Amino acid sequence: MKFTLVSLKNIFYKLRYNYMKKIVSNIAILLSIATIVSCDKDFNTIGSEVIGDDHFDFLIKDDVTLSAYTKRTGAVQSNNLPINSLGIYVDRYFGTTKSTFVSQLELNSIAPYFGNIREIQSTDSIYLYVPYFSEQTATGSGIEPNTFELKSVYGDSDNATLDLKIFENGYFLRNYNAVDPSVSQKYYSDEKTSLIENNLASAQLNDGSNLSENTQFKFNKEEIIIYKTNGSGAYLDSNGAVTTDDSKRVVKERLAPGMWINLNKSFFETKVLNAPDSKLINNNLFKEYFKGLYFQVDANSSGNSNALALLDFSKAYITMQYHTKEAATDEFKKKTFKLNLKGNTINFFENTFSSEYNDELTNTNAPNTDEFLYPKGGDGSVVFIDLFGDDDAGDDDLIPEELEELRSQNILINDAYLTFYVKNEEQKNSTRIFLYDATNNIPILDYIFDSSTATDPANNKFSYGGILEVVENVDTKYKIRLSSHINNLIKGTDPDTNKNVRLGLSVTQNINNGNRYGIKDPTLFGNTNLPIGSIMSPLGTILYGNHPSTDPSKKMKFEIYYTKPN
Predict the structure, then answer these.
(1) What gap in Å lies between CA 241 and CA 128, rounded to an integer?
(2) Nearest alpha-carbon partner for 371 in 549, 554, 558, 540
(3) pLDDT, tens digit, 9 for 90 and up, residues 433-482
(4) Of 97, 118, 245, 388, which is the most buried if we count CB atoms within 10 A?
(5) What is the DSSP letter of 223?
């Protein structure tokens, strides 16, 4: 008998193998409220009608043929990323990555009028502020600073220092391809020297005497506090009187921890304050005139330059303080103007990979299966996975025989998982990995259908999974659900969408962004795109594959939980 159970839709999608048998005994009760529509022995897919008696078995299939191997990405598209990295990260297994960055600037208000007579005086400042990702952990009393912890800073952020240099960029970052203006311009992670460093347009701009802003730069977790002054640099108390007592200063503004860099005043006086009016009419003209800033980092002489931060430069700005008056006999008035780090950007990566990692990429068994898998962010590597083995050469229908066998059994898919065990070689593992359709370069259905959210957005889509599991402070495994994907392969009727596509596995910096970005050399990589979340991540992880020599207890597992009529 076949019953329509509208109220049961989507329930069986959520069932798990270890408790589904308990549900079966209650189905008869639920059937009493259903409407009988026909009598047959059909079995249907997830979320559809189900036969409600004891004439079916709950089974696990865990012997599907798998092939998984790692491919080097080469240079990747890295312009206009949502999040960019800056610094040097030393991973104990994968090696060293240096990240530099270039960004255009925009006028906070177009066609500004700076006054008839304007100048930057000795008490004025030109400063850059780039906020870090941080979390406030304690509140200070009075004028005491609040306490913060930095997030998305890798390496030894408490102690490491970098040699940071900021220059005027001399290369115009285009919106569209010069050959085909209908196509957006792509810039790649390995073009630092040819595009930018060969076209620097100024001397170093962060050239002050405070070494923490240049040769001894550090990602500082201290809150930034700006106090009220009299316009000439003297601090004021609550009565507006000049004070030299630190405890009587008045807080004007509190800023979360961030990069605070004083920039060369003479440069900005000439380049912006005294710029021709025609260059300030709109931001398009301004970007052609002032092509942006380049952030260069190098190791310094400290012996510890292992610090790299992920930054949202779109929230960064430059504040220009200046004095202006209309007539020579007028008094100067202090004013401010803001430039925003917005427009086109490029993140550049320079890698010195370890010999071990390089050897593994060179000696991969692709397209056959590898003993270990090495998804690595930036311009690192991605894993490709083929399910269900090969097609029989005799039938030439491009459908693997194992998949054809499952399709012929009229089964109901209850769940399906891929599980990857971590091989710890002192690397810092990514907290999320991302499984996607690498044939079409789109997310799989389970990712698309999963709207689950968590307090921390990094844990969103937790039903889809791919979250690093930690047991007693040891990184152990990742588990990813692909139930809807497998169900569509087996029960889907559209030959255009139920194909057995190749899967891709990458690390991801942002599970909420499933978009794709380009590859500079698709022939080397074997694909034209990869997930943008992989490009933004500086991390990598090492996973056990399913090669015959792999430790059987750690092999990657593919398990299908299904129901079959008996």
Answers:
(1) 29
(2) 549
(3) 999 999 999 999 999 999 999 999 999 999 999 999 999 999 999 999 99
(4) 97
(5) P
| Residue 566 binned pLDDT confidence (cut-offs 50, 70, 90) | confident
CA distance 29 to 12: 16
Give the β-pairing of 95-103 and 345-353: antiparallel
Question: Quick check: 483 and 46 in contact, CB under 8 A?
Answer: yes
Q: What is the 3-state secondary structure (H, E, C) of 371-390?
A: CEECCECCCCEEEEEEECCC
Mean pLDDT, residues 171-197 taken together: 97
Average pLDDT, the chain: 90
Asked if the model's pLDDT at residue 285 lies above 50, the reply is yes
43-46 long-range contacts (CB < 8 A, ≥24 apart) are: 43/410, 43/411, 43/412, 43/563, 43/564, 43/565, 44/412, 44/491, 45/412, 45/413, 45/487, 45/491, 46/10, 46/12, 46/13, 46/412, 46/413, 46/414, 46/483, 46/484, 46/487
Confirm if 542 and 357 have CB atoms less than 8 A apart.
Answer: no
Q: How far is CA 425 from the centre of its chain?
A: 23
Backbone angles phi, psi at 182, to 5 degrees: -80, -10
| Residue from 211, 326, 205, 199 nearest 272 by CA | 205
* Cα(20)–Cα(521) distance, integer angstroms: 48
Cβ contact 386:367 at 8 Å: yes
Which residue is listed with tokens 């969408």? 497
Residue 53: its pLDDT value, please?
52
Q: How far apart are CA 136 and CA 291, in angstroms?
A: 35
User: Domain limits of the chain?
Assistant: 2-54, 66-74+354-565, 95-220+259-349, 223-256
Q: What is the pLDDT of residues 345-378, one digit of tens each?
A: 999 999 999 999 999 999 888 788 899 999 999 9
* Cα–Cα distance, 190 to 379 (Å, whole number): 9
Q: Are 412 and 562 in contact (CB under 8 A)?
A: yes
Tallying the residues shown for the chain, one arrives at: 566
Mean pLDDT of 264-270: 98
Packed helices 401-408 and 483-491: angle between N→C axes, nearest 10 degrees: 80
CB 289 within 8 A of CB 201: no
Provide the Cα torsion 234, 238, 240, 246; round to 10°: -20
